[in-house]
């Protein structure tokens, strides 16, 4: 489970709840990024977070699983690979769109991961491998939980997060241009989970290069890290 929000009312703000069960994570803060890294097969994978180009990278699981997300050949790129390369500045959102246009971006065998990526200007790229992708230029707001935006609530699953989606949309609509960093954390608190626990809640202000986060739903213990924003020539989505 997870919840991703992007708001462009007033200033651009990104919010992210990472909900995981029985997985080891750490937070890495450098001059180039603040990433949430997952420990897998003896290595740390920087799969989520913000970088100094002003991008925010996410990867919620999509429920129910859809076999169309399975890799189809040796030339495929996976969402985890693309996430890592984006976060580390090794590729651009434009290149990710090229992979999508060529039909080369997929998930991992047996699981459907999806993505909601954003850039410094608040443009949003949503991806569900095998189902499609959408690109929105500075939408008023965008929300992604754990169901496919291409299916909505037509297919039911107990982990799809339809209730979290509706809660986030309602609160974003109510906040309007008044949304600020504390207000963004309030939305994350309202959509946080305990069964599959929310282990990191993160807010990113790409205009300021400021990243805020708390762990394990300790809303009164927020850490801040500022990224020196890098130029992004040719990096438009």
Which characteristics define this entry?
single chain; 237 residues; alpha+beta; 6-stranded antiparallel β-sheet; 4-stranded antiparallel β-sheet; 18% helix; 32% strand
Provide an overview of this structure.
With 237 residues, the protein is α+β, with helices and mostly antiparallel strands. Helices cover 18% and strands 32% of the residues. A hairpin with a 5-residue loop joins strand 9 and strand 10. Helix 3 (162-175) runs antiparallel to helix 4. It is globular and about 45 Å long. 44% of the residues are buried.
Q: How far is it from the N-terminal to the C-terminal residue, by CA?
A: 26 Å
Class inferred from helices and paired strands: alpha+beta
**DSSP, total strands:** 15
What letter string, H or E per element, gives the SSE order?
EEEEEEEHHEEEEEHHEEE
* Overall radius of gyration: 16 Å
Mean pLDDT: 94
Q: Helix fraction?
A: 10-25%
The strand order across the widest sheet is 12-1-2-13-14-15
Largest sheet: 6 strands, antiparallel
Strand content: 25-35%
Q: How many separate helices?
A: 4
Shape: globular
Q: Segments where pLDDT lies below 50 for 5+ residues? A: none
């Amino acid at each position: 489970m997870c919840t991703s929000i992007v708001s462009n009312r007033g200033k651009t703000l990104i919010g992210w709840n990472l909900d995981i069960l029985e997985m080891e994570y750490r937070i890495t803060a450098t001059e180039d990024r603040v990433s949430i890294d997952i420990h897998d097969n003896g290595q740390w994978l920087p799969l989520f977070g913000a970088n100094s180009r002003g991008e925010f990278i996410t990867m919620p699981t999509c429920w129910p699983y859809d076999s169309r997300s399975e890799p189809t050949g040796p030339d495929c790129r996976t969402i985890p690979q693309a996430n890592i390369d984006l976060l580390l500045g090794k590729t651009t959102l434009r290149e990710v769109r090229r992979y999508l246009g060529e039909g080369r971006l997929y998930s991992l065998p047996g699981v459907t991961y999806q993505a909601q990526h954003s850039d410094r200007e608040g443009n949003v790229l949503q991806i569900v491998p095998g189902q499609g992708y959408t690109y929105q230029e500075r939408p008023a707001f965008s929300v992604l939980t754990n169901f496919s935006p291409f299916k909505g609530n037509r297919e039911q699953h107990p982990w799809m997060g339809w209730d979290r989606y509706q809660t986030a949309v309602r609160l974003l609509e109510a906040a309007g241009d008044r949304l600020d960093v504390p207000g963004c954390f309030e939305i994350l608190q309202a959509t946080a989970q305990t069964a599959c626990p929310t282990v990191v809640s993160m807010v990113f202000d790409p205009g300021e290069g400021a990243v805020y986060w708390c762990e394990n739903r300790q809303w009164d213990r927020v850490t801040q890290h500022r990224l020196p924003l890098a130029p992004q020539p040719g990096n438009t989505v």
